[in-house]
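Go through this fold for my students:
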Amino acid sequence: MAKSSTPPRNVAIASLDARRQTMFNLMAPGPGTPWEDRGSIGLIGAFFKTCFRSMFKPAELLDSIRRPETGGDSFSFAIGCGLMWAISALIHGYLYYRHMLGEETRTANSTTEDRITVLGQPWVIWCVIAAILAVIGVLLFQKIGSRLFYSLVATEMKSKAPPILAYNIFGYCLGPSLLAIIPIAGPILAVAWIAIALMIGGATRLKISVKGSVIASLVAVCAMVGITIATWFVARYVPPYTIIKEPPLRRSGR
């Protein structure tokens, strides 16, 4: 007769108890992310490895966090991702500048539409401001977005964890920011990919429902996108102005 491998109810096996505790201990340390091992891998290599893992294996990346109780590593990684958005701001600022120069040439002698004059120096100033705000915006997204996310899913967590874990999740899920430097489509693709990474990462790392993770991720991302769009609209009416519009030339009489 085969022997049963199931222990009696009143018998505790230490290894099984430890395994159960590990499964539900959301703050259990992992083997380490590439970014946490940047001292041995190298700063640039660790950054790109972490970005790629964030894009293609977010659950594995988040499970490997070695120091989930501290936010220093994810904060410094978020700064690197913020620099990607800063570069994106400069690239798109330059592309839009070239486009407006074409509009200036096209409308220079127009008698039907406003003539446009592009001011180069104020344009450069605003591009630099946009780059700085991009970094600040990424860090605010990690701070405020993670707080909003945590408040929405806290009741779903099977094992309670401090908000610092959500903060780290948001930091490491910023890896798709690498795509932001691609002209035109890059920023949209990066935002969508970050949202997907958060959905996957939130569900697996915090042990919450997929539905709850999707809703919380979308709320956090959409809130940040809305703030960004509102800031852009307001900034258009703040000096120094980058474009001067003049009325069309009058047609000379016959």
